[in-house]
Automatic annotation (TrEMBL):
This is GNAT family N-acetyltransferase. It comes from Corallococcus exiguus. It holds the Pfam family Acetyltransf_1. The keyword Transferase applies. Keywords: Transferase. Residues 11-168 form the N-acetyltransferase domain. GO terms for molecular function: acyltransferase activity, transferring groups other than amino-acyl groups.
Amino acid sequence: MTRTAFQTADFTAVPVDDNDTHVLQPLLDRCEDYHQIAYGRPALPDQARNIPRERPPTLAPGQGHLFALRDAQSGLAGMLEALRDFPAPGEWYIGLLLLAPEARGHGRGEAVLSAYADYARVNGGRLLRVAVVEHNDVGRRFWTRVGFQPEQWVGPIEQGLRMNRVLKMTKSLG
Ligand SMILES: CC(C)(COP(=O)(O)OP(=O)(O)OC[C@H]1O[C@@H](n2cnc3c(N)ncnc32)[C@H](O)[C@@H]1OP(=O)(O)O)[C@@H](O)C(=O)NCCC(=O)NCCS
């Protein structure tokens, strides 16, 4: 039976267990544009498999959220990676919202964000935070449009082959 965390008009968010994260690799491979902007190279061959290992070591079980966004035919159209109650209770941190290139530009990212915000709210979330790399103009426009406000610049930090300044942005769920 497929477990569902939340749903939008187009997608079902299905939790991905830590042992199964390799199922996301084809999506990462198809999103070379994003990986070039963030890391200066395509996704690494084992990048999806490594997602659980890249979480902060202090997390309790269940704090790491990873969802496959599946379309009506069960095709992999996107993913959402986040941490609940990190770094503080009630603060939820979105690591990556990534849609397959052909799924973008139809308001579906906004629908996912809105459904995830509802999911966070009913589970005690008070604030969403995201960190956007300096040269991700599309991403920054997206987070601004869906109600995020700049909080703080951090870095430059080493990400793959790049040294990125990163803008932390927040949205209150109040
Ligand atoms: C960022 C991302 C998730 C946004 O998702 P999305 O579904 O494409 O976002 P939207 O459809 O809401 O907005 C994208 C564009 O489509 C337009 N759009 C929104 N609704 C639309 C609709 N119903 N029909 C046509 N266009 C629409 C928006 O105006 C926007 O254009 P603009 O940025 O030039 O103003 C997606 O682009 C993505 O996966 N990017 C790569 C990964 C990334 O950068 N993630 C963020 C960093 S964590």
